[in-house]
Structure prediction request, 196 residues.
Amino acid sequence: PSGLLGLRCRSDRYPVILRRMSDTKPKKETTKPGRRWRVWLRDGVLAVLIVLAVQWWLSRDLVRDVAPPLVGVMLDGTEISLHTQDEPVLVYFWADWCPVCRFAEDGIARLAQRHKVITVATSSGDAADVRAYLEERKLDLPVLVDERGTVARRWGVVGVPAAFIVVQEGEIVHASRGYSSEYGLWARLWWAGLRS
Prediction:
């Protein structure tokens, strides 16, 4: 018989008969019923564990338990004292040079319209630089300027963005570093409001 590329071979001498590619039919991949959802579940649980491990590693240096003092004059001239707040507060550290912060800034601005939010512009220049940045980006945020990063260091912030949810008496109920969605932060603020 004629084999692959028209070569002649004897089937009794060779264990495999060479065939033309068009003669072979692909095998159907069969999966047992119920196996597919188990694979998806396993992969989903593994993905969640990886995300949680990375989030824990990024947040390992952040202050926990009781918030350090956050007292000062906001960019708009109002005085702020974190420990006198009567509702959950989002304290959000950001910088004008941070691309992740730029990606999240519109969500933070929307959150600031509905909830108590204090943003801290760390290592982003003086008040005039931060004001110019906010005007350029058309943002309306309550900002405490941390020109030299001293406030960030007190809070254990070594990278931005960083978010803290602080309730009455300065207790920190959530701390994270890296991107957080608007809805994720809203849910954490809502949950903190239920707890306090």
User: Anything to note?
Assistant: The mean pLDDT is 85. The radius of gyration is 29 Å. The CA atoms of residues 122 and 146 lie 5 Å apart. The beta strands are 71-73, 79-81, 89-94, 116-122, 143-146, 162-166, 172-177.
